[in-house]
Amino acid sequence: MLVIDGHDLVGTALCLALRRAGNEAHQIVLGPHDVMLAAAGAYPPGVVLMEPAIGSATSGWDVRVPDLVAALTRTGCRVVALAGRHDGPMLGAMIMAGALGAVPKSAPLETLLTVVAAVAGHQLVMSGGDRARWLDDYARYCWRVEVRSGHVRRLSPRELQVLRLLATGHRAAVISRVLSISLSTVRTQISSLLAKLEVASQLEAVAFFHDAIADAGSIAPDRRPSEP
């Protein structure tokens, strides 16, 4: 059994708990995609417990979780997500990529062991209803990504520059000096980008921008939206 968790101490503790329960468990340290696959390949294909959040910015690695799930599944591994409270869309992406189900990260060890035993025995651990719900969440997420991406592509290069500066906390007067353009031009650019993003305020535009940046590391296994 393999454990892939974004927190070394958590992953180590989980491996120790699984070993005490009589399971052979090994931790895969986060790293580049190919390195992690090679590390997993050193063990016979089996159950892989994977935290969805290993692909987040806080992990320190650009891990595309669905791609990793798909690659592990092709080797014969059976992937189960160690789900947190906010992993809904990622769970859908993992399931679409081949994961067999999910178990809450906060679940008692007995629950985790039951799921692991079922997966190892090729038993179903996810109902059709749960699968449909996760995939539906994922589909809605992908739709929001597409909408945001389309709106950002409407912006001119200059409007995008202005938006980036707004997002880093600069006021119009400062943006005017940074870009060497008049204050009235900056205000015109701001009005234009608000209209194109279909938002009512600079605060909403900045929030939209940060969401679009997050989408640049999209969880979708078959799309690579460009960072705006």
UniProtKB/TrEMBL annotation:
Keywords: DNA-binding, Transcription, Transcription regulation
Claim: Transport is one of the keywords in the record: no
GO BP term, pick one: regulation of DNA-templated transcription
Pfam families: GerE
Domain of life per record: Bacteria
GO molecular function: DNA binding
PROSITE patterns on file: HTH_LUXR_1 (PS00622), HTH_LUXR_2 (PS50043)
HTH luxR-type domain mapped to chain residues: 148-213
Signal peptide: none
Protein name per UniProt: DNA-binding NarL/FixJ family response regulator
Organism whose genome encodes this protein: Pseudonocardia alni
Lineage of producing organism: Bacteria, Bacillati, Actinomycetota, Actinomycetes, Pseudonocardiales
